[in-house]
Amino acid sequence: MARPSLREKIVDSGVRTLHERGFASAGVREITAEAGVPQGCFTNHFRSKEAFGIAVLDRYHERTQAIMDETLRDQRLPPVARLRAYFDTIMEWLDAAGWRYGCLVGNLSLEMPEHSELLREHLVQVCRSLTASFAEAIRAGQTSGEIRSDLDADDAATFLLASWEGAMMRMKVDRSPLPLEQFKRVIFTMLLIP
User: Fold this and answer.
1) Cα–Cα distance between 102 and 63 in angstroms, integer?
2) Residues annotated as DNA-binding region (predicted)?
3) What are the chain's domains?
4) What is the DSSP string of the chain?
């Protein structure tokens, strides 16, 4: 198997570093040290820290999409079970991380919009993609009769993502799964057909 390129090592390490330390507080020296590459490699592969942030966001989004493929898009499961499987899978990762890091999309959203229009626009695209995936599952649930049909699927998906991100922020503060468990109890009660 081929060895990963230095760029790939920096991006992979960047996902961990930005999750743990945040975008603003992670310096190029720290990023390259975590990746185990010379500092000069950073500028060889990224024209700016902002370009690096976008590459890291894309890698994180690829991983999230892979989880969505295994859960939200698993046609063998009923739509509500797909939604539950997605949140349960993410919660397993968050548990392994000690309820400390939350979602990189949410973290960057809080940290960057005022400082980087390019990164902000990229975050908008990622959030649209995530919302579309939730809307697809909600529409399937409405068609199957599991999810209330009086809700606009796009509005419900936007609310779902915003609520999930908020629950993860609270989880980070509390270092507890309780906000995520409360999110699931409330959201599924609101979405499901009574």
Assistant:
1) 14
2) 27-46
3) 1-46 (1.10.10.60), 50-191 (1.10.357.10)
4) -PPPPHHHHHHHHHHHHHHHH-TTT--HHHHHHHHTS-THHHHHH-SSHHHHHHHHHHHHHHHHHHHHHHTTT-TTS-HHHHHHHHHHHHHHHHHHTTT----HHHHHHHHSTTT-HHHHHHHHHHHHHHHHHHHHHHHHHHHHTSB-TTS-HHHHHHHHHHHHHHHHHHHHHHTSSHHHHHHHHHHHHHHB--
Give the span between the Cα atoms of 139 and 104, in whole angstroms: 26
Q: What is the DSSP string of 127-138?
A: HHHHHHHHHHHH
The string over 51-71, giving b where at least 16 C-beta atoms fall within 10 Å of a residue's C-beta and e elsewhere, is ebbbbbbebbbeebbeebeeb
The model's pLDDT over 42-82, given as tens digits with 9 standing for 90+, comes to 988 999 989 999 999 999 999 999 999 999 999 999 999 99
Residue 128's pLDDT is: 97
Residue-wise DSSP of 105-126: HHHHHHHSTTT-HHHHHHHHHH
The terminus-to-terminus CA distance of the chain in angstroms comes to 52
Span 126-143, average pLDDT: 97
Looking up tokens 């009574």, which residue turns up? 194
